Amino acid sequence: MLNVAFFVPCSALFSLSVINLQRQGFLSRQEKYIFIPVWILAIILMLFGIRTGQSSGIFWTEIAASALYAAMQSYYSFHQIRYMKMIRHALANYYDRDMDDLLQWMRWSIYIMTLMAILVPMMIFVQGKLLAVFGILVLAGIFYLVDCFCLYTVSNAPAKVLEAQQNEEEVLNEQVSDLQQKSEEHVSDSALHRVDIAVANWIDKRGHLKAGLNLPAAAEEIGVPRYLLSAWLKQKSVRYNDWLAELRIDEAKQVMLAHPDWSNETIAQRCGFSDRTYFQRKFKQLTGTTPNDYLTNTDPTV
To answer: Which of 110, 82, 87 lies closest to 99 in space, CA to CA?
Structure first.
């Protein structure tokens, strides 16, 4: 009973803390308060089982209370994963590099909370050393959550996430406003064709090799509204940072063959990558080989 009474509110508050960061403080009423009736009902069930005085009654009320707890945490985990995917989408369509490292702690926090939701009900029926080990692991998990939460909030990561999310909202508002003025429901094929031409000219001028180029800056250099560039990328089913990475890797291949003596650091800077490590990771991801292996196995005369 004490385990259920403790873990329901603690898990709910940890989960709400993560969602609060994900939503920039905009929590729905259901998200805020759904744990309260679950908590009360779980305690009532446990008290009812104890009052019956029968071991079978206590067992089944423990099962029911544990199921309530697991269902509540599943609800929170589902929303956390959904919001995290939305954040990842916003980051990928704003910055010119992967920003998943900002959310790594969030992903692991969701995994830990979900695992606790699965294991806590099982641990209620366990005694002895196994319960002690589980208790230590729970405390370690809580420490990890609190530590990561604090580090995230004092870093510049929330500002970067907010900037990407605001850009996505502004892009959507610009598109709706422009289409309403033109009495159109969708971006026209002729508009997307203009983007094709503008992007090709921009690539010919090596505009894509400028490091730190977010989507609004790229749209301005290309000479198209950012909502049109976003719609063009969406039509091609590619995210902004992946699109730029592919263009830059293609350039890197040519540079490596033309200058085989250049270091990866020099090539990364030449081709618009923020650092050597990111360049090597994206190169391996997109080509299936490392830059050095690619250069070794490629005939420069071909």
So the answer is: 87
Contact (Cβ atoms closer than 8 angstroms) between residue 156 and residue 102: no
Q: Are 80 and 110 in contact (CB under 8 A)?
A: yes
Domain carrying residue 277: 240-302
CATH number for 267: 1.10.10.60
Tens of each residue's pLDDT in the chain, 302 residues: 777 778 788 888 888 988 998 888 888 999 999 999 999 998 888 888 777 766 666 777 878 888 888 889 889 999 999 999 999 999 999 999 888 888 888 888 888 888 877 776 666 666 778 777 877 887 888 888 888 888 888 888 899 999 999 999 999 888 888 888 877 778 888 989 999 999 999 999 999 999 889 999 999 999 999 999 999 999 999 999 999 999 999 999 999 989 888 999 999 999 999 888 899 999 999 999 998 888 887 765 55
